[in-house]
Amino acid sequence: MPHLTAFEGQVLKAASVIPFGETRSYAWVAAKTGRPKAVRAVGQALNKNPFPLLIPCHRVIAKDGTIGGFAFGVSLKKKLLVLEKEILKQFCQK
DNA sequence: TGTCCGCGGGTGT
DNA sequence: ACACCCGCGGACA
Length: 94
Prior knowledge:
Distance between the termini: 38 Å
Number of helices: 4
Strand content: under 5%
Oligomer: single chain
Low-confidence stretches: none
Largest sheet: 2 strands, parallel
Order of helices and strands: HEHHEH
Structural class: mainly alpha
Shape: globular
Number of strands: 2
Strand order of the largest sheet: 1-2
Helix content: 40-55%
Radius of gyration: 13 Å
């Protein structure tokens, strides 16, 4: 747990709470941190993404549903979202 | 849709 | 203290 600022901690915390197969907006995360207008700062925090494997940062997308960006590539982010969606579907069927 | 501006926090200088 | 970066959001045309 490298030196994270309080704000970054809040962001990561909020992001880690996002349920599997679901998505939230940057504004949503920002609201969770108590800084509703700090959406850009949220993006920066997620971009740094100290724990890519622990934080579902790919579940955080823009409010209009578009992918803002992703540290490992937007295409991968899309794939991950689709993949989770598919997996979730499998669980519902079986 | 496309453009523009305000926004908060982190980091470098 | 200042400037610049950033995975945004909302307003407006």
